[in-house]
Amino acid sequence: MKEKNLKIVLEEVSDLLRNQQEGIDLLYNKLNWILVSNVVLLSALFASDCPNLVVGSFLVISIVITLVGFSPKTFKVTAKISDQLRLVDEAGFLVSLINKKRQAFLSNNKKLKRVHLVLRYASGCLICAIVLQFIVIYV
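Structure (tokenized):
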């Protein structure tokens, strides 16, 4: 019975880790779109007749924040497959594997919160730049 319950817990933890990885991929995709939008808007701004320094500053800040958000981060997964295969016959194998996945999830969660913060600041600067550009054009 304990073995069956441990397998259920392992499946749940694995699903959590998989969903977390999908969330990380989605965040990086959003950061990529923000970066592309910033570059396009910045080039359009400098191609206009009277580029606004404040709008350009917001765009540059957003670009820098986005590039910092893309800085290499190592997200944890679990123990190496070779280590798992070597330890598969031991008594506490499932418990140790579950603990490894739990540690990876918690470690990745901290890094994920930082990427969320970067995304929030970068998108905020982009939104401010767009709003200011519309104000400059139509006022």
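The helical segments are 2-47, 53-69, 81-87, 93-138. Residues 132 and 138 are 10 Å apart (CA to CA).
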